[in-house]
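Chain A, query sequence.
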Amino acid sequence: MKAVDYFHKKPALLNCAQAILTAWQKEYDIAENTILEFKQYGGGRAPEGACGALYAAEYLMKKHHQQSIYKEFSVYAGSIACKEIRKNGVVSCQKCVEIADELLQNARAKKE
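Chain A, predicted structure.
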């Protein structure tokens, strides 16, 4: 499943960061408690105000010693900061989840 399939969907109603981790849970061997911990990073509450979806994707990239996706994400979303992305109104939170998910897919494909 794609991360967007978990974003704000019943029954769990996961935030953007949790949706990314849940979609990649098997591939990256992510514990359930880690997904629960990432509840605190949705809605612009990730460190330095980063988009939660990006923050979760970056967490996975660092965990597996892969290159940062911050620059690529910024090109698509216009910023890495949640509040700036929302203020611009061009890219929705759902689209941010899709962008982060796609960048993870691309990084994984390059690694294989």
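The chain has one domain: 3-111. The chain has a mean pLDDT of 94.
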